[in-house]
Amino acid sequence: MKQAKVFLNNALAGILTEDDLGYEFRYDSDYLKSDAAAAVSLTLPLTDKPYRDNVLFPFFDGLIPEGWLLDIAEQSWKISARDRFSLLLACCRDCIGNISIIPFNKNDVING
Predict the structure, then answer these.
(1) Distances (CA, A) of 73 to 26, 43, 57, 78
(2) What is the C-alpha to C-alpha distance for residues 53 and 76, in angstroms, rounded to an integer?
(3) Rounded CA separation 58/78 (Å)
(4) What's the angle, vertex CA 15, arms to CA 14 and CA 19, rounded to 5?
(5) How far apart are CA 28 and CA 86, in angstroms?
(6) What is the pLDDT of residues 4-46, one digit of tens each?
(7) What tens digit of pLDDT does each residue of 79-91 get?
(8) How many CB atoms neighbour CB 94 within 10 A?
(9) What is the DSSP string of 56-106?
């Protein structure tokens, strides 16, 4: 299982998980209580229920570089273009825009 923290405007918005069943995105409960809470995407509106799918959500997949930049990422980190979650973790720590994808550490505690 792989997990990533999803930050919106430097605030922890939720956790993205890849497991044997597919993908899950869940907003952080403290984030949902915040007055500044905003959806990370129009396709992932604020809710306390998790989003699940068998493919990586298009919003997150769209953050992954394309073309020659993807080629460099694949070669540098030896990640297959088919391993979209690993590419997201490797390439999207500092995306263009207000979203950051940070690899989840075992010591991290979340409010789900």
Answers:
(1) 27, 27, 20, 8
(2) 29
(3) 23
(4) 155
(5) 22
(6) 999 999 999 999 999 999 999 999 999 999 999 999 999 999 9
(7) 887 888 988 898 8
(8) 9
(9) --HHHHTTS--HHHHHHHHHHHT--TT-HHHHHHHH-TT-SSSEEEEEPPT
How many C-beta atoms surround the C-beta of residue 73 within 10 A?
18
Interior CA angle at 85 toward 56 and 11, to 5°?
90
* Domains of the chain, residue spans: 2-103
pLDDT at residue 97, rounded to an integer: 81
Q: State the pTM of this model.
A: 0.86
Query: 9: alpha, beta or left, given left = phi > 0 and alpha = psi -120 to 50?
Result: left
